[in-house]
Design a protein that fits this description.
13% helix, single chain
């Protein structure tokens, strides 16, 4: 196998040298040397590659590049990549062909001339790096015992996937198929149609994540307009994406029998009848990184009087002296026992901007949203009365009930919707976001656990104003996140 790769490498170098000679481009010894030691980018993907994340080795490689005269603005200690020749046997060390630091690269001849022999042997795996035998050869089997991350073909850090990706973790646009699964959200890409099916627990745009919102939703994303801009369509394939679906009421999270007993109980409820969920993202044709986003969740029916199972609802008991049925109502002698807060209409409209620090190496990504948000929560009166065969009737009602409150935007801060997101795709991809909406701060972090398919996701929310009766002062939830792509 190694002979095949070496023969391929020699053939490509020979062809490149012959072509250069024929066109008269080789005019001095330096150009001749470069032509013999430069690897064609088209065949790099056939060779072993890995990123170095061992701090001591990162510093030594970085200092070598500085000593060779490379400008500091071209170098990066955290972005060091090794290209090596395949091994014939497990006991053989790698033969290093090229080292990249930031955007600067040195070939095998430069490595041999400028880099210390011991450092090269550490990087190739020929010498032991950890433990009391540091600096001695690996006698049993050559291996790399320092911190590194292999770059297989399917990883997004390789050339074929180092593209502009809006949502690397849950909605990558550079894959044929994609699937993600966590307690917060489940998403699947429907082939290469551009359609996405997504199931979400919570209403993050209101600041209520997981079951604290009392509802979940299922939406279908449909592309409407293809992006024809060559520079951006890899990451933004469509200029218009529309979303349509519905939300439903959660019955879990009340406490007592849930498997997540360590998570705070919820009090807020999804409304009876569910909601319609609709929205769109529109990317500006003249600047696809800039756009507007809109989302609305509208109840299918108005609140009136409905029968319920009280074990599936959250309640609280405010000052009940002012909460009563209107005089003349047939129920005026029935005692109102509790109040159930119900999540009603909500949504937002924002202007967003996507920003990659370096589009040629899009490892650092930002997204900023700024706009207006709306949320509404209404109280419903809970009461009981005897029915037929000694069956107790349990109902919620707003009809002819006095003293119930409606929570909706009143202050300037209630209307603001703002969000900032950052993602890094260097050695170990991770991301975070911070959102301000409904005067609630919602933070999210995701980190890798194992390879490129298992992550850890966490969300934390806290009101920046006084907590309302149905809100938790601190709501935290953590979940594994499975990510599979083809």
């Amino acid at each position: 196998m190694k002979r095949f790769f070496v023969a391929l490498l020699v053939a490509v170098i020979a062809c490149g040298t012959f072509a250069n000679a024929q066109t008269g481009r080789i005019t001095n010894e330096k150009e001749i040397l470069d032509s013999l030691t430069t690897i064609d980018p088209e065949i790099i993907k056939y060779f072993p590659r890995w990123k170095v994340c061992e701090p001591d080795l990162q510093v030594q490689v970085y200092q070598t590049f500085l000593f060779m005269g490379f400008p500091k603005n071209e170098l990066s200690e955290q972005n060091i990549e090794i290209l090596a020749s395949p091994k014939d046997f497990d006991i053989d060390p790698f033969e290093i062909l090229m080292i990249t630091c930031g955007s600067a690269t040195i070939n095998s001849v430069q490595i041999e001339y400028f880099m210390g022999d011991k450092l090269v042997r550490f990087l190739s795996g020929e010498y032991i790096y950890q433990g009391p035998d540091r600096g001695y050869p690996h006698y049993d089997a050559a291996k790399r015992d320092y911190c590194y991350s292999d770059i297989p073909q399917e990883m997004p850090l390789q050339a074929s996937q180092a593209q502009l990706i809006l949502d690397y973790i849950k909605q990558p646009t550079n894959t044929k198929q994609a699937f993600s699964l966590s307690l917060f959200e489940q998403a699947v890409k429907i082939g290469q149609t551009g359609f996405w099916l997504r199931s979400t627990i919570g209403s993050d745009h209101m600041g209520y994540h997981f079951w604290s919102a009392g509802e979940a939703s299922i939406t279908l994303q449909r592309p409407l307009y293809i992006n024809k801009d060559v520079e951006t369509r890899a990451g933004i394939p469509y200029l218009i994406n529309a979303y349509l679906g519905g939300s439903y009421r959660l019955t879990s999270g009340i406490g007592g029998s849930d498997m997540f007993g360590w998570v705070k109980e919820r009090t807020l409820n999804g409304g009876p009848g569910g909601k319609m969920v609709a929205g769109f993202d529109f990317y500006m044709p003249f600047e696809p990184a800039l756009g507007v986003s809109f989302k609305a969740e509208l109840p299918f029916k108005e609140l009136s009087t409905t029968g319920i199972d009280k074990t599936t609802y959250g309640f609280y008991t405010p000052d009940m002296s002012n909460i009563r049925f209107r005089d003349g109502d047939p129920r005026e002698n029935i005692e109102i026992l509790k109040v159930a807060p119900v999540n009603r209409g909500s949504g937002y409209f924002s202007v967003f901007y996507h920003w990659w620090l370096n589009k040629l190496n899009p490892e650092n990504y930002f997204r900023f949203d700024l706009g207006l948000g709306y949320s509404e929560v209404r109280e419903m009166a809970y009461y009981e009365y005897p029915g037929y065969a000694n069956v107790t009737i349990q109902e919620l009602s707003v009809y002819n009930v006095l003293g119930l409150r409606t929570y909706k935007p009143k202050e300037f801060g209630d209307w603001i919707y703002a969000k900032a997101e950052y993602r890094n795709q260097a050695v170990y991809p991770f991301g975070m976001s911070l959102q301000y909406a409904n005067q609630i701060m919602l933070g999210k972090v995701w980190l890798p656990l194992f390879s490129d398919w298992l992550y850890l996701e966490a969300k934390y929310a806290t009101p920046l104003r006084g907590a309302r009766p149905y809100e938790s002062k601190n709501f935290f939830m953590i979940s594994p996140l499975l990510r599979l792509t083809i």
